[in-house]
Predict the structure.
Amino acid sequence: MSYASALHSEWIKTRSLPSLGGVLALLFLVTVGFSLVGSATLGREEAGQPDFDPLLISFFGVNFGQVVAITFGALAAAAQFKNHGTRVWLVAVPRRGVFYGAGLSVVASLTFVVGLATALACFVGGQFLLGEHRLEWTDAAAGRAILGCAVYLTAMALFASGMATLLRSAAATLGVLVPLVLLLSFVLGDVAGSSGVADYLPDRAGRQVLVLDPLGSPGPWAGLVVTGVWSGAAVLAGWWAFRRRDC
């Protein structure tokens, strides 16, 4: 089977699972919802303070949306291992590289499209609620944050897909990644004060692209590269396990 045919079959498989469509809808709703709440409450409370960031506050919901993106990537990759379903798929697509790559391509494409729509809604809605403190569309950071948000969510979904392929379990993947993005950065960066280490964790580095004037290292685009390296390592680990295992 060609790569295009494998890609089409992966798209049909993903579309046929209602839970995955629901998770993508939840990605939009959770991220935009919390971003609007953050802009309407925290934004107005902090407006005028020296460290107020009118751009970052519009993407407040990404703190929660990233968990949904991870969930989507984990569920999409782990679904094929249920009841040894991979053996059936490998009969149709015996080339494991084609099969693995097609699945990742579908996850990345769907997450990026939904992530881009989510980022646009977060920025437009958040800046509207900030009123006189809003950031103008013409600011270069606005376009960078919108595109960067979509790329970041896509990278986190791929990170989860690689881990789910390695572990063959969505639950195990969530058990590893959710504490990583919700707890480890906070503990290392804010509690322990080890900001140098925490700044290069996948979530903290990637979200630099959402900051109006990021300080220190890594910068906004370099931070996305750091997140991409983490995701790439997980994808390669998943491929290594998938290639060697008797599914």
In short: The CA atoms of residues 91 and 218 lie 45 Å apart. Residues 96-130 form the longest helix (35 residues). The mean pLDDT is 86.
